[in-house]
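Listing S7. Sequence submitted for prediction.
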Amino acid sequence: MKLWFTRLCVMVLLWPSWLYAAELSVLHIAKPRAADDPAHLYFSGLLQKALQKAAKGRTVPPFAATIEMAEDRMVRELRADRIIDILWLGGSKERARDLLMVPIPLERGLVGYRQFIIRKERVAEFDTIKTVADLANFKACHGAQWGDTEILRAAQLPVVTSVNYESLFKQLAAGRCDYFPRGIHQGKIEVSKRAAAFPDLIVYESLILHYPFASYFYVHPKNKELAQWLQEGLEKMIDDGDLLAYMQQQEHTLHAFPLLRLAKKRLLMIPNHNLPDFSDEKNSRYWFQPDDFEK
């Protein structure tokens, strides 16, 4: 009896982890910042599609939103294998080291092409910006725990931060900072949803700040097969053209299409020294390239 029990314990320990991934009764995901948050709808919908695309007979578990948490806490909880099963966050060397990152950009790097939300009376001042040094005379509003905040700081761009997303719009409207850099697909929808509360905020479209940056899915390091399941699903979506079609249909990303013409914009570029080591931002299979915006 004792030998049988010992063998059973060994079998459980060696049980393929993909079965664990496939038989999850529920997949705990981030709580949306708002009920109609386009970004949450985009990433949770993409997660669903990627899992379905490579299910291979496995049951895709339903999703359940966690409690509200700041990004740093979500990372800590996932690292500790508590509360949350999967995240979508900006890529960084640290996050790639501490968590298991699915190595496929979820928006093709679109979030690294930034336009600014500003107060409408500041347009003439922003028209004078020709270089990164010029931009350094203005203060950016940004999330304290966002993966690209350090990219701005490393470029010597002053940053005013908050852990609360909505407070960034309040700080901008109150003049505590000068601009809120948002992905070219994000600014217009964010401003339109807050037009009643902040009627003086607009998207300044004449200038784009670019740095290589992307969002990725993350899971706990023990759950390699779930990560592989997601990677296979995303690769199939790329092969079938489903990822690009999805981006063109979703409220979160559709405002970038047809792709903006960078030739008619002032383009400022800064480096990102914190890209995960596996990143290949020149690979057009996974990343939009500046030339894509000129076609």
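Caption to Listing S7: primary sequence and predicted structure tokens for the chain studied. The first helix runs from residue 2 to 13. The radius of gyration is 21 Å.
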